[in-house]
Amino acid sequence: MTAHSEIRQKLAAPAVATPRRPLGAAFLAAVAGLFRWLAGFFQRADTTPGTYGAYRLDRKIGEGVFTHDLLALVRTSIQSHRQLTWVFAGNHEITELTHAQWSSYLVSARTIEVLPFTATETRLLLTEPLKHSPMWLPNDPHYPRFDPAFWGEGGIERIHAEAGGWPHLVQLIAETIVDLVNDEGAQHVTPGLLEQALNRAVVSGDTVLRQLLQGECRLPGEWDYLSRFRRVDVQFPPDDEAVYQSLRRRLLVAEDDGQWRLRVPLMQRWLHVRG
Fold it and tell me: For the structural domain made of 208-273, what CATH number should be given?
């Protein structure tokens, strides 16, 4: 990794820009130089730019592949490139990143919590999926819409509940339903067709469900605890504090009368069938 002095050279003073100063040639050239340097850095590290979430970057720092100078580069860029936004994804809280003092390098960083869909947001996705697309004018008669009746009585609410509002899982169930409707030539969703779609979704969505439940288990005992939901609907919270906090951060569990259940029914269905 390049020394910090070299990093600072890459982020020269002319790169500074403010909201009152339009993007100038110096700023654009400096940012282009920064990303050329980053591309070369990742190439030397035998990896691909853009594929490292915060958790994986932290792990590579712990393995010695990257050094803390990478975080120093980010901090310097944040201070210098006022019209450039850095976004780190792939973790729930900064405390999960244990191989460097991330909070000291990114002391002014803001946490953006991406929450599950509300029932209103799920309804909007299922009835007006392209509402915010710039490809359509608001009053265009050809604007794609689904009549709520297409999803059957209580169908939208059932999809939202089965997915726990998880955006990817809402889409997974919805696209599986549409495929079945097309295959069977149906006019709308029936309870039997919806149940068939849920069973098919845990197969077609095996990769994402396996990753969400098993792949993100990084602590001893975490997967052991989750996998017990194959046999029981509720169980007492784990004794291990780290596992307790991790499962809550991952939005996988809900509490009922002092016991935990899986928050997303589709995940428990996957456990029964594929887990």
Answer: 1.10.10
